[in-house]
UniProtKB/TrEMBL annotation:
One MF term in the entry's GO annotations: siderophore uptake transmembrane transporter activity
Key word Transmembrane present: yes
UniProt-listed Pfam families: CarbopepD_reg_2, Plug, TonB_dep_Rec_b-barrel
Organism: Rhabdobacter roseus
The keyword Lyase is annotated on this UniProt entry: no
Bilayer disposition of the protein: Multi-pass membrane protein
Name of the protein described by the UniProt record: Outer membrane receptor protein involved in Fe transport
């Protein structure tokens, strides 16, 4: 709040001067067809003032006379017109390849041509988003080159670039109007789950690869920047209704399910000074089903896994992770519940947004914005989680000039109804178990009692029960089992979803994040060099009430800050542009980190540009990685910040788990021969190895990239690039065992016998899973190429391909995250927004190669993500008199049920019809 008050005081100090304004009106038409152009941008040069043309091509804005008006539109040649009187303007724009040379901001944090961007960048504007053959904006991103899409559910999709993909991707940054969509508690931006209504999106820019030199630690793998529509420029009412169906011929059964989404946007400018906008969307449908019941039990040989395996651990079955080895019988697991029994497939998403814009002068604008999101989504992490009624709130206050901005925002989450489905299955399983006398036992005895019943039945020790039969033994052990769908099951389900921490499956988080930043472009003050500088401070305020962090009494708060400077200069008669950037970041728990970037763009001739860059990136461990302190029974999960483990001696005074196993085995064999206890310990104690686990620190990467981007014959855009990246300090977990003794070694460096003795008893030792880093180094390299062709008659053809390769070098596979990225993927799009005056269409084809997926959900047991091919399609029909457009479309037209991450649901076709009423009440 202090940041907000400072900005408000700044606003109060800014003088307001207004010259007399005059209305500037006119129309914009296509020079060839003379048809009105809707959505053309009209701005007063050198100011923040502007508007867009309506369905009749008409526009109106106020300005001082004389003025210069800039008129632009994607696919048309921009114009600058001097206006000296009130005469209405009759403007015509010629169709050219400006679609192939868009303006971008995110690559250098200043506006520049996409052709001369120093790094690879992709952009979609409002027209491309509207015409995309996708039911939602986020789906359409799959057609951008280099993008990897992971769908956890209908309301939750994640994207990534350049490898090390994950369903919860904390290495990829998502910004909306400069606000980070990261959830402090989850530790990552939850993709399509949070954000703004699709109707309010003006453009999206994507940077594949590290952007840490300009954006800080979160932009390790890439950046997605969404810009919404300014209410001064985009006024009026837009209403959209979408209805559809999914689960058509779903192999999991259940029949087709309805899907609908209602959205509206209204913006109005009261004058040249004040404008506001409101947005709201509500999506509801039936989530995709996760029904892969493959046996992934690590302790069963692959050839013996399957439905007949007594120790089966089904992938999307929860509760059967609890297993034991019974003497004379072998490994047996408890009977679990299917995901459909313990989750909710009725999902929804509410996205609301309101913003107030005040123009202090022609070149200075103040903005207050609030985004409220709430929804339900199934999410895959180390377990499958039901994010139920998860609420996400963002507030932003910004002061923006022509060459600077100052911005402050807050991000808050409210998770009190979410829960872990795997834990829920285990807890319900402990509520109904009976002993051999038929009495229900306490929950803390349930698992042991169930295995006792199973063993007795299998050995034939139960009257009337046939022995030596696993199916019969399981049926006997399951007597009294709470059945899904019954009142008893629903009662226990509701009970344990409302209990948090070790007492239940509930997920509690009221975590917050505060951020303030600013940027100033000093270029106007220098003749030969362009200079920008900026900085930020960020503050995490965690509240999990002791369910995840040790914050029930002492709140966890983490500050960090960063600053960057960037300088560029054109040489060799403007043919060579050199840009140098450097950023310094400091988190309270880590040493300062410097991330430089250097790039060069050489223009061979007009519209032909070669680029080369050296980029660095780093990623701070999430706050949970640093401060988790959770006793889960067999071990304590312990975050890697030094202050988090103070007094526990886990990092400083422990043995490696592997050496404890070796020592315990040798000791057991020795005592079996009659050797006395102290002698056996003394003989084998030196097999113990003191652990050397470092405290957690940021991940690091370096990358080199070369590329070419050019326009041929004013109609064909070519973009190709190659990159090589090197990575170190990947975040890993390491298990250690700490004895009670103050030191595990003697002054001479040998193992302390007292510590060795304590390791042999669970009563005098403690096991920890520590968060740390691996020193192993790995590398990646890859290439991408894209072609965009503007054909005769308004047809547009796009094609791209991406190749990615992971090189593990000499690294231990256990010390690096999984690459989880297909080697090859391709996209082809074909469209015509104006096939006739009323009809438009677009088609998109996506294909990717099969690859192995490793994740914590499967205990890093690999599972294949099969190759798949998808076709998306839409056809639109415009009704100008009704200011509306009908759109009939299909995502995954062929209804191929595909999986994008092992253990996540199978995604089929979504067929929809939408009607959009635009330019109302204007």
């Amino acid at each position: 709040m202090r940041i907000y008050l400072v900005l408000i005081l700044l606003l109060g100090q800014v003088g307001v001067t207004w010259a007399q304004t005059q209305p500037i009106v006119g129309t914009v038409r296509d020079a060839e067809t003379q048809l009105p152009l809707v959505g053309a941008s009209i701005k007063l040069k050198g100011t923040q003032q502007g508007t867009v043309s309506n369905a009749r091509g008409y526009f109106e804005l106020s300005g001082t006379l004389p003025s210069t008006v800039i008129v632009s539109m994607v696919g048309y040649e921009s114009q600058e017109i001097k206006v000296s009187d009130k005469t209405p303007l009759a403007l015509t724009l010629r169709s050219v390849s400006t679609e192939l040379n868009q303006l971008v901001v995110s690559a250098s944090r200043i506006e520049e041509s996409s052709l001369t961007s120093p790094i690879t960048i992709e952009k979609m504007d409002a027209r491309a988003i509207q015409q995309a053959p996708a039911a939602t904006l986020f789906e359409s991103l799959n057609n951008l080159k280099g993008v990897d899409m992971v769908t956890s559910g209908l309301t939750l999709r994640q994207i990534n670039t350049r490898g090390f993909n994950n369903v919860g991707n904390s290495r990829f940054m998502q910004l909306t109007d400069g606000v980070d969509n990261q959830s402090a508690g989850l530790g990552f931006a939850a993709g399509s789950f949070f954000g703004v209504s699709d109707l309010d999106v003006e453009s999206i820019e994507l940077i594949p690869g590290a952007a840490s030199a300009l954006y800080g630690p979160t932009a390790f793998n890439g950046l997605l920047m969404t810009t919404t529509k300014n209410p001064f420029d985009y006024q009026g009412l837009t209403i959209q209704q979408k209805v559809g169906v999914n689960h058509v011929n779903d192999p999991a059964g259940g029949g087709a399910k309805p899907f609908f989404e209602t959205a509206l946007r209204y913006a109005h400018a009261f004058s040249n000074r004040l404008a506001f906008k409101v947005n709201a969307s509500y999506l509801k449908g039936t989530d995709w089903y996760a029904t892969d019941y493959s046996d992934i039990d690590r302790n069963t040989p692959p050839g013996e896994r399957g439905t007949a395996n007594p120790g089966r651990n089904g992938l999307n079955i929860y509760g059967d992770e609890v297993a034991a080895t019974l003497p004379g019988i072998g490994r047996v697991s408890r009977t679990g519940y299917f995901e459909k029994d313990v989750t909710t497939y009725d999902v929804y998403s509410i996205k609301t947004n309101a913003a107030l814009h005040y123009r202090i002068s022609n070149s200075l604008e103040a903005i207050y914005q609030i985004n409220l999101n709430q929804g339900t989504a199934n999410f895959t992490s180390s377990s499958r989680n039901m994010l139920r009624d998860f609420r996400f709130t963002q507030q932003r206050l910004e002061l923006k000039g022509t060459n600077f901005f100052v911005r402050a925002y807050s991000v808050a989450e409210n998770s009190q109804n979410s829960y872990n489905t795997r834990s829920l299955g285990q807890f319900i399983n402990r509520t109904w178990v009976r002993d051999l006398n038929g009495n229900v036992v306490p929950v803390n005895q349930a698992d042991a009692t169930w295995f006792e019943r199973y063993g007795a039945a299998y050995r034939g020790a139960v009257g009337g029960v046939v022995g030596q039969n696993h199916e019969v033994a399981r049926a006997f052990a399951d007597q009294g089992r709470v059945q899904p769908g019954t009142p008893a099951f629903e009662r226990e389900k509701e009970k344990y979803t409302q209990l948090y921490g070790l007492q239940g499956a509930g997920v509690f988080s009221l975590c917050k994040m505060y951020h303030a930043e600013g940027l100033y472009d000093f270029t106007p003050y220098f003749r030969v060099v362009s200079i920008q500088a900026g900085g930020n401070v960020r503050y995490y305020d965690m509240q999990t009430n002791g369910t995840l962090l040790d914050d029930k009494e002492n709140r966890v708060r983490v500050p960090e800050y960063g600053a960057f400077v960037q300088a560029s200069r054109a040489l060799l008669r403007e043919k060579l542009k050199i840009t140098l950037s450097g950023r310094f970041d400091k988190n309270q728990n880590f040493a300062g980190n410097f991330t430089p970037r250097a790039s060069a763009v050489y223009t061979v001739q007009e519209n032909h540009h070669f680029r080369a860059s050296y980029q660095t990136g780093f990623r701070n461990p999430t706050v949970v990685d640093q401060f988790i302190k959770l006793n889960v029974g067999p071990l304590i999960l312990l975050g890697g910040a030094p202050s988090n483990s103070a007094g526990l001696n886990a990092y400083e005074n422990s043995f490696t788990a592997a050496s404890v196993g070796t020592f315990g085995g040798a000791f057991g064999q020795e005592t079996a021969t009659g050797t006395p206890f102290p002698e056996a310990v003394a003989k084998h104690k030196d097999k113990l190895v003191k652990s050397k686990v470092p405290y957690i620190r940021p991940e690091q990467m370096r990358a080199f990239e070369v590329g070419y981007k050019g326009v041929l014959r004013n109609r064909i855009l070519l973009d190709a690039s190659y990159y090589y990246g090197s990575y170190t300090n990947f975040l890993i977990n390491q298990v250690v065992i700490r004895p009670n003794s103050a030191s595990v070694t003697l002054p001479d460096g040998s193992i302390n016998p007292a510590a060795a003795q304590e390791i042999l008893s669970t009563a005098t030792r403690q096991t920890f899973q520590l968060y740390t880093n691996a020193s192993d180094q790995v590398s990646t390299h890859g290439a991408s190429a894209g072609l965009t062709a503007l054909l005769a008659g308004g047809y547009r053809l796009g094609a791209n391909a991406t190749w990615a390769q992971f090189n593990i070098l000499d690294a231990n596979p256990n010390n690096v995250p999984a690459f989880n990225t297909p080697r090859w993927k391709t996209n082809v799009t074909f469209s015509n927004a104006r096939l006739t005056n009323h009809i438009g269409f677009s088609l998109a084809w996506h294909w990717q190669e099969a690859f192995l997926w490793y994740g914590t959900f499967t205990e890093n047991l690999p599972g294949e993500v099969p190759a798949y091919s998808l076709i998306d399609a839409q056809i639109s029909y415009k009704l100008p008199k009704l200011k509306s457009m009908l759109k009939l479309g299909a995502s995954n037209l062929g209804n191929n049920y595909v999986v994008q991450a092992y253990g996540s649901p199978a995604i089929g076709g979504l067929y929809y019809l939408s009607v959009t009423f635009d330019d109302l009440l204007r």
